[in-house]
Amino acid sequence: MLKLTLKPGDYLRIGEEVKVVFSGGSANNIHVLVEAPREINIARSSAGGSRAKTSYYAEKGISKEAQKEIVSILRREHLAGKMKSQKADRQGQ
After folding, report:
1. Three-state DSSP class for residue 39
2. Is the dihedral of CA 67, 70, 71, 72 positive or negative?
3. Is 9 left (phi over 0), alpha (psi -120 to 50) or beta?
4. Sheet holding 18-26: strands in order across?
């Protein structure tokens, strides 16, 4: 078993596809982020071997087209808000 000391932001790579990032912690807890392909089952358990009842499976990412559409919507909303603000400023003068 490998024992390491990590600072927040440090990470471990396991093979080519798994990345475990230490994101901080408190008295009796640590916080890690795990980046892995959906096909890899990630289950939380203790060193004593008791397995948690939940497993994590990564969400499938959204398509490039959907990402572009979201950006487009956000830009339109941002511009509409700016125009509304400018119109209110002109009416207040």
Report:
1. coil
2. positive
3. left
4. 11-14, 18-26, 29-35
What does each C-alpha distance from 82 to 16, 77, 85, 86, 88 come to in angstroms?
A: 45, 9, 5, 6, 10
Using the structure block, give the residue that is written with the tokens 């008791």: 50
Structure tokens at 78: 């941002």
Say if CB 55 and CB 43 are below 8 A apart: yes
pLDDT tens digits, the chain, 93 residues: what are they?
788 888 889 999 999 999 999 998 887 888 899 998 888 888 877 776 665 555 555 556 677 888 888 888 888 888 888 888 888 888 876
| Residue 69 one-letter amino acid | E
